[in-house]
Amino acid sequence: MGDDGGMTAPLRTAFTTALGIEHPIALAPMGNCAGGALAAAVSDGGGLGLIGGARGDWDWLARELDIVTGRTTRPWGVGFLAWSADPAIVRRTLEYRPHAVMLSFGNPAALAGPVTDAGVPLIVQVTDLDEARQALDAGADVLVAQGSEAGGHGGARSTLPFVPAVADLAGPVPVLAAGGIADGRGLAAALALGAAGALIGTRFQATQESLAAPDMVKALLDGTGEDTERGRAIDIARGAPWPPRYPGRALRNDFTRRWAGREDELAADEAAQAEFREAFARGDLRYAPVWAGEGTDLITDVPSAADLTGRLAADARAALVRAAGG
Amino acid sequence: MGDDGGMTAPLRTAFTTALGIEHPIALAPMGNCAGGALAAAVSDGGGLGLIGGARGDWDWLARELDIVTGRTTRPWGVGFLAWSADPAIVRRTLEYRPHAVMLSFGNPAALAGPVTDAGVPLIVQVTDLDEARQALDAGADVLVAQGSEAGGHGGARSTLPFVPAVADLAGPVPVLAAGGIADGRGLAAALALGAAGALIGTRFQATQESLAAPDMVKALLDGTGEDTERGRAIDIARGAPWPPRYPGRALRNDFTRRWAGREDELAADEAAQAEFREAFARGDLRYAPVWAGEGTDLITDVPSAADLTGRLAADARAALVRAAGG
What we know:
2 copies of one chain form a homodimer.
Chain A: H1 14-19, E1 25-27, H2 36-44, E2 49-54, H3 58-71, E3 76-81, H4 87-94, E4 100-104, H5 109-117, E5 122-126, H6 129-137, E6 142-146, E7 152-153, H7 159-170, E8 175-178, H8 184-192, E9 197-200, H9 202-205, H10 214-222, E10 228-231, H11 233-238, E11 248-251, H12 254-259, H13 263-267, H14 270-282, H15 305-323
Parallel strand pairs in A: 1-9, 2-3, 3-4, 4-5, 5-6, 6-8, 8-9
Antiparallel strand pairs in A: 7-11, 10-11
Helix pairs in contact in A: 2-3, 2-15, 4-5, 6-7, 8-15
């Protein structure tokens, strides 16, 4: 690689500079999966680990915050759901001195204040151009442009055409690409599109430090993007009041097959909901979701998250060199 | 650009080598829009122009074949719909000595024989991994992995995660990326994903040589990806028996808004269909579709297609240099 025109240098971007990290990679703050151990491992690997603070269950979050602060001295952060997180929980989290707070799904205005007042970099995930404008108005330091191929919840745009449109709108504010990125080629594509890095979720579920159950990890190794499907049945059955505009993408299972296209009927069927919740509590994957993005095809092993972070960056660099014919 | 490590060299790939062209860009063979003039202009610009042969209307196609052969001495080709084109029309087309024939949407086996027997490179567009296997079995020389963000008809996968999965499957067979690619950044991303180039449709509708009506071109300049929507209402109303697995993406209009989610009802409503066909014949864009991909945000001018082809390649090269930090 000595003849590649200097491209073995790190992939420095406005995001790596702003956060003081080595690789342009952030861990998606996946609820129940991205705990303190996974966030610390991504940070130790040179990326930005983000704990999945979700709606703000403080007992869970306090434990994971203790883990991340005990395990890494590198930058890390926490993500919350903008439509439901409690501002008080965000404030308690800021006492742990995260290096970034991320808000996703919904208007970030109500939660942004405490973050920016504390001088903590604010990352806001957006799923359309109106949300991107709203995020810039709220003072976001970094935008995440998320495509509908992402695992878990999301909007209606696709990553490849959406990222450059958001980058054009954001001007100097760095944009991360999210949705469908699961290997170095995807990270390289994100950078080529004008993003300053990638936010990666599903791929990090299949790591040593993920909190995902072993049968979930196996399902990700076996599944392809075509085994994933978006819908609202799972949220309806578990009583999670997600805004309808954000359906969730998961591996198809018996439950999603049964209720696809019949979500109104499910909402009125209390017995079916109770059956779901009982099976969900048991972790029965015929019912419980394995949230998974379309990049699932590309997941073939279960490395440590730190090693994976370095590998993604090295593979992205190699992909860019190859693409440029260098 | 003298200090970029040699990256001002052309973006040579297995596709440019196989077709003997300069830039890794193919024109999507859009029916009623990609005629002989547009195909010749893309070819003269260094890409591969493909006439939209669609289902094989010979009167239209013979005229456009005369135009393309009269205007360019560079490689060009024709695309057909695999689910409906007449093998006799494909054979008549081969008499014009195209440099490639492309088959899209459906099993290519029945039409592939005449093409490969004539020694003409066969390009097959695929929308999932099963179709990719089928295309390789049919002897495809080039695959096109098309994502659902494409304008017009398509399958269910998204471009960014789908392309590397198809590239892994295809091995040495070159893969083009399609869907949502409308500027140099998108082409650069395609190459970073492991594609040997990009097949570009919507962007080429807004060129001097496109057969798209001026009000359609204006709608593309004004529209964003969020103004597009996929559905089957247009095909149902015009009596086009497209396989239901391939809905079409177009700019939302009065007609698509009225019938979204009510396609079965439309199929039974002959008066509504007649109303559509009458307005369609007049070119009334409150009814008639402006097929448009999600990359529509990125279309801001109406250049000549030859200039655009060169600009896409130059911008892609620059995007790769920037992404690699060069």
